[in-house]
Amino acid sequence: MPAMLPAPADSARRLAAVLPSVIASLTGSPGPVALPRARSAVVALIDGLGAANLSARRGHARTLAAAFGRKDVIRTTFPSTTAAAIASFATGADAGSHGLVGYRTLVPGRDALANQLNGWEQGLLPADWQRRPTLFDAAREAGLHPFTLGAPRYATSGYTTAVLRGAEYRPAASIEERFDLAREVADSVDGALVYVYVPELDQIGHAHGWESDRWIGALERLDAAVGSFTARMPRATGLLVTADHGVVDVPEHRHVFIDADPALLDGVRHVGGEPRCLGLYFEPGLEASDREALIGRWRESEGQRAWVLTRDEAIEAGLFGSVDEAVRPRIADLLVAPRAGIAYYDRREPDRGAERMIGQHGSLTDEESRVPLIRFGAYETR
């Protein structure tokens, strides 16, 4: 049996509940998270800023830290990865419903893995792969004016089209420019719902680690931008600062190469997922006895330092929420999510660039799955 999973959080305290709550605050309706009524709203999603990361560097983020209390924490998705998390944020649905169930997942019927962030550009994912209407569409239907502010390179990407459709995309190159533009939009448009995406901390974390000076410098820039925004916040505007996942640093000596033990790959057709949440897809037609033996070998090898879950066990545990039948085959036959500070790699991969990454995420640990939800302006807790 797999190791005990972390206790699930209340559904109203999850990332998927944030945007419905903001829309409710703008329309005067009850929402899953109670927020005061606001004239306009800004939601900044900071890629890779976990609650533990922020707590450990409070001295470098005085604006955020001053408003960040113990109760200002929510849970992200499983896996704790950007593709699944932002899709849940933007649709209000669990991964088992919207269908983006990981970083690299199997495309049923194609016998191929697809990266959920750029698989559209590679022609691996159909236009309807993301199966749910977005909350930006719902906001527009409710008479609101949704905007997305992000880097210019994301403006027309397949992922943006699939997950953020319904919002007017306005490009802004830097953190500071995005918050300046957010203030302009919130001030000039009643009923504005402004989503600000900040990828810089995650990018630096992957390359240099979240404990690096460069990551701290990016956090200081973010905090200064938030401070400048709040100092001149438009009247009756609410600001929420949240994230899609946290980050753990995994040094090279903590890499685990799964190809070192051929028995762990005997019967495995595809190795998907990511280093902190492997997704193993078995050979079609693998006999039940061979499946059980393969699962047993993984549990014996990795069960002391990882959650080793079959697809059925993960679904039964509610990790993907309610799972549509069409989504079920996208989920790996076996999921391996580290509890310890390790990352899994396969040296048979033609591109081994991922091994250079220091900051990692994807698993169920508190460091990866607990993210801040910090309130300012009209949303500030008094």
From TrEMBL:
One term of GO molecular function: hydrolase activity
UniProt xrefs under PANTHER family: BIS(5'-ADENOSYL)-TRIPHOSPHATASE (PTHR10151:SF120), ECTONUCLEOTIDE PYROPHOSPHATASE/PHOSPHODIESTERASE (PTHR10151)
Protein name as annotated: Alkaline phosphatase family protein
Tree of life domain: Bacteria
SUPFAM superfamilies: Alkaline phosphatase-like
Organism of derivation: Agromyces agglutinans
